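WARN no homologs supplied; continuing
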Amino acid sequence: MELDVHPAATTDILLDALTRFRPHVVHFSGHSTGDLIEFEQDVDAPHQGAIVTAGAFARAIAALDEKPLLVLLNSCHSAAQTKNLVDTVPFAIGMSDSIGDTDAIVYAARFYASVAEGQSIQSAHLLSRAAIELSGLQDHDLPTLACAPDVDPGATRLVTPPPA
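OK structure emitted
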């Protein structure tokens, strides 16, 4: 696996990363609503983020020649945005309500650890929800997995499983 990390990304950084890196997974961690995503602005002083509509974000993903396989929106109320995304990508994950920072971190850490071990997208998702609950946190039911109608999340792996 190769990571291309952009903390405090602006929309220009997002577009540059999508076209240069051609990711299989796009992970957004930040603030959102059912209709909006907040990116950073290219300023050094305290400021409001750049508010982007969910439709504009989905259109940016759809414009790519090589689409990602998965978009993970690890941000509050983002599950509503996954419906637009699975018109373009096979899988999208979002949060159905406000999710605590610790819960979101636990979900993402377990999700990618499970994917790296060769688990299916569905298994990684379910294990990640279980990790939140096993940690004694409350938001285990918030992460939701959406799929295009022609794909099976239980049969799709992003990484070849390691030999037994």
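DSSP finds five helices and seven strands in the chain.
OK
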